[in-house]
Amino acid sequence: MSNEQLTSHMRRIVLTGDALADFPPDQQGGYVKLRLTTDSGDPVMRSYTVRAFDPERRELVLDFVDHGDDGPASKWCRVARVGDRITAMGPGEKKLAGPDADWVFLGGDLSALPALAVNLEQLPADMRGYALVEVPSADDVQDIAAPSGVEVRWLVNDDETKPCAVLIEELPLVGWLEGTPYPWFAAEFDAMRFARGFFRDEHGINRREMYLSCYWKLGDSDEGMKRAKRRDMELDRMKLAS
Ligand SMILES: Cc1cc2nc3c(=O)[nH]c(=O)nc-3n(C[C@H](O)[C@H](O)[C@H](O)COP(=O)(O)OP(=O)(O)OC[C@H]3O[C@@H](n4cnc5c(N)ncnc54)[C@H](O)[C@@H]3O)c2cc1C
Question: What's the gap in Å between 104 CA and the centre of ligand 1?
Fold first, then answer.
């Protein structure tokens, strides 16, 4: 195991061990669920994207947003040391932007950057489109390989009380290209709702022809985010049915 400061607000943890002998190859962009504990000792699960996996070395690379001590996963990534053990389950299904699309419209915040990076690296070389990435500081920009026709826009928003504000402001300003797009968007809860309105309601994209997800919710733990997500989906279904 290793644990390094990757950028200002991100740590890279490489997990190793014989337990990874059965981990399937080519799962970059999928996710694992890590078992952690709260301060009071309650077990919780948290999702992290498979940034890379080397089956021969049995090394699983995960990139963690370090958003402070307020959260078992964030807290753990600050203190994890060689020799520590953690239980990881998965991988869960990878959701990559469709290679059959004419162009891609990717968007996300720092929590989605590992998945966005895998997406960009795996797109066909002649793909066109945009990737909007909101980061909390200029020091969080990463060097990521992307097809030359995909413009990667780094958006800095250092106001942690308004996560994704710059991202959702920029979304409608991006020029809509000819042909069939594949939108891929993952970020904070409210930003995901904005993106759903933008891609589905304004541009008429069918939910099966895009990936939209919320990865966390401001002021709520992962458990609270999941409850809010279920309520929101129910309300959205009712709105669509009426
Ligand atoms: C499929 C999937 C893949 C994911 N991949 C990654 C990944 O590769 N890297 C990654 O860092 N995250 C990733 N996430 C998001 C991560 O699971 C959540 O951010 C999770 O809530 C972190 O848990 P925690 O224990 O640190 O905080 P929690 O206990 O869930 O929350 C505690 C507090 O921290 C705040 N908080 C949580 N996340 C953030 C954040 N990102 N920025 C600022 N404040 C936050 C909450 O609003 C809350 O107030 C992914 C989520 C999903 C669903």
Answer: 25
Q: Reply yes or no on domain 2-92 having CATH 2.40.30.10.
A: yes
pTM: 0.97
In angstroms, the CA 209 to CA 148 distance is: 24
What is the rounded average pLDDT of the residues 20-42? Answer: 96
> Domain 103-241 maps to which CATH number in 3.40.50.80, 3.40.1440.60, 2.60.120.10, 3.40.630.30?
3.40.50.80
The size of the chain, in residues, is 242
Ligand 1 pocket list (CB less than 6 A): 31, 46-49, 63-65, 67, 70-74, 111, 114, 215-222
Confidence at residue 102, expressed as pLDDT on a 0 to 100 scale: 97
pLDDT at 98: 79
pLDDT exceeds 80 at position 77: yes
Q: What distance in Å separates the CA atoms of residue 106 and residue 186, rounded to the nearest whole number?
A: 9
Residue 152 has pLDDT above 80, yes or no: yes
Nearest to residue 90, comparing CAs of 150, 19, 179, 149?
19
Q: Measuring from atom 4 of ligand 1, which residue has the nearest CA?
A: 48
